[in-house]
Amino acid sequence: LEVVLSRRPGFNPVSPDCFTLREVDPPSPPADPSDTTTVVCESVYLSVDPYLRCRMDVSTGVGYTQPYQLDHPPTSVGVGRVTHSLNPEYPVGSLVQHHEWPWRRYTAFKASHPPKPVPAWFKPFVSQFVKHTLIS
Predict the structure, then answer these.
(1) Rg for the chain, CA atoms, rounded
(2) How far is CA 26 from CA 40, 55, 134, in A?
(3) Global pTM?
């Protein structure tokens, strides 16, 4: 499952009809058993904050970021649980974070743009969030 930006809000408030839910297959683990460059994760937390609003329009109004593409998932800061990895830095079950996490249930990251392990001090906050929002 993923959320895609289906229309730009323009000067109007962002509303549910700006987005579409789409069924997609989760990424497959790499066919090559020696591939340590792919980390497959299940989303646990996705940030939705005011900064994202400017990226939903054709022009962001700033030079340091680009607008989201229509018919693609927006990205934001996210946290997820590793579901497949042959890389010892990302053991299955560990929590990772990324500043460009796509709004989808499962995603695959490559070593060229890897997630980062969630710091130990942050793990209790993620656990409480998951517990109280029924996301698993």
Answers:
(1) 16
(2) 9, 26, 21
(3) 0.82
- Condensed to tens digits (0 to 9), the pLDDT of residues 25-49 reads 999 887 887 888 899 999 998 988 8
For residue 2, what is the enclosing H or E element? strand 2-5
Query: E-assigned strands of 6-136?
Result: 19-22, 38-46, 75-85, 95-102, 106-110, 116-117
Distances (CA, A) of 54 to 18, 72, 112: 14, 16, 27
CB within 8 Å of 127: residues ≥ 6 apart: none
Q: Residue 135: what pLDDT?
A: 47
Find the Cα–Cα–Cα–Cα dihedral 97, 107, 45, 4, rounded to 10°.
Answer: 130
Distance CA 77, CA 2 (A): 16
CA–CA distance, 83 with 73 (Å, rounded to integer)? 20
Q: What's the mean pLDDT when you consider all of the chain?
A: 86
Q: What is the C-alpha to C-alpha distance for residues 130 and 13, in angstroms, rounded to an integer?
A: 28
